[in-house]
Known about the structure:
single chain; mainly alpha; 18 helices; globular
Amino acid sequence: xxxxxxxxxxxxxxxxxxxxxxxxxxxxxxxxxxxxxxxxxxxxxxxxxxxxxxxxxxxxxxxxxxxxxxxxxxxxxxxxxxxxxxxxxxxxxxxxxxxxxxxxxxxxxxxxxxxxxxxxxxxxxxxxxxxxxxxxxxxxxxxxxxxxxxxxxxxxxxxxxxxxxxxxxxxxxxxxxxxxxxxxxxxxxxxxxxxxxxxxxxxxxxxxxxxxxxxxxxxxxxxxxxxxxxxxxxxxxxxxxxxxxxxxxxxxxxxxxxxxxxxxxxxxxxxxxxxxxxxxxxxxxxxxxxxxxxxxxxxxxxxxxxxxxxxxxxxxxxxxxxxxxxxxxxxxxxxxxxxxxxxxxxxxxxxxxxxxxxxxxxxxxxxxxxxxxxxxxxxxxxxxxxxxxxxxxxx
Length: 395
């Protein structure tokens, strides 16, 4: 047997289709980290617009308007993937994010200009995750599938540990213009590092949205769970900056412990947890996110903020990546793009649409009261999922 064949056999033992697929998996992970470093500027958006003098209602609009482009782009990501292939579709997504984030360096002080920049940013966010997940999963065999998918997804929280703390320092030392220019560059770098990957061919069938053919009745409750978990995650990452400004607690007290917990869970603990049913993992994830909201509701000291970050990191680790792997495992090749679009859309509804009405909730109940209300919804969602019989193997 040749050396190349030996390497391919070794890679298949580790869960990859061949030796080159292992390298492609790692480069796709690097591109996801870079793209996420650009898009996690969302953690500082509320702070930037607050310092610019926008009222809370306008800040809620500027945060939530992303949903107006994220959700349609996510729903159409299956169509774009079918026409261009997963890798090229992800390149288009990274280009939109680069332009949208960078444009805010000049448009942030003008409400409608900022709206347009956020909408462009949202197209990139909506188009990226579905095709990139589809490409990554195409590099894998069924062996260690759930674990490798969840390990790959740790690139997103890793960016949260790096980008917001650095971005906060850039914002404080050099201003918002430098924040958005430097924040846009990683998305461009993500295109560069993936230019030489083997492309995943476009679908040979009709290039429709792929949603109707991919949808199954049992998807409803997992999708609803993703909406709730996304709403909890979006609430904290959107509004925590101004909340911590008053007691002068650095964002790093939240994001660094959260990221350590998230990466540790996905890379190490999921080796064991992946043996559990995804339904149990997702329900446990919602409980963790809800406990995080309880911890932050009355947090006035860095220690409580760090505990909240750890709980959110553990909870979120068992949400999106688990659902992506669970629903994606039962999808045929022609349905893969549609399934990933469904999963990403559900999560993005929570992350990017929910902060808009959440600004009204904060205005009525305060940040602590809104956190308690969202925690209650999370506990209810976890209970519903835990007692359900959602299971792709039954269809």
